[in-house]
Amino acid sequence: MSAKHTIRRELKHAAADDTQRVLERLERTCRVRGQRVTRQRRAVLQVLLAEGGALTAYELLDRLRRSGGRSTPAAVYRALEFWMDSGLVHRMDSTRSFVLCEHPEGPHPGQLLICRQCGTVIEAEDKAVSEAASRLGSRLNFTLDVGLLELTGVCALCCARGRRTQPAS
Ligand SMILES: [Zn+2]
Ligand SMILES: [Zn+2]
Description:
Elements: H1 6-12, H2 16-32, H3 39-51, E1 55-56, H4 57-66, H5 73-86, E2 89-92, E3 97-100, E4 111-115, E5 121-124, H6 127-139, E6 149-153, H7 156-165
Parallel strand pairs: 4-6
Antiparallel strand pairs: 1-3, 2-3, 4-5
The chain binds zinc ion (2 copies).
One zinc ion is lined by residues 90, 101-103, 108, 123.
């Protein structure tokens, strides 16, 4: 597995200490780029990191408020926009939710596989899929939006859970 793929996976099994370390690493990246990490921006990132999956802006706001923060929808959106511009967060149109980028080192075409049962998001970079999509676009004279291709379905864990809970036939 390449190092690029590790942020969310690290987090899934991470203790609070590790979460803090990943957060510090991301903040360092921002400082190097000359971007300021305000308290609100940090809090939003922290919630997404802890979640390890996708959240809508309102779920984010709810989590922030529950942890004692005073936040407004506008402030959450501003923070999300900052992180999207920085390339650390992706917005998924299909679910209107936000997820941490697994390869924030630079812009990347790719795919997001979204589980419609548990909300898990897997970020993939399959060149063949991106190329096939752009070939399809040009064949049909269709200018595709730039961004990640969103594919919905059911993740392996939910599949396994479904099999376990289904009555034997
Ligand atoms: Zn990404
Ligand atoms: Zn799932």
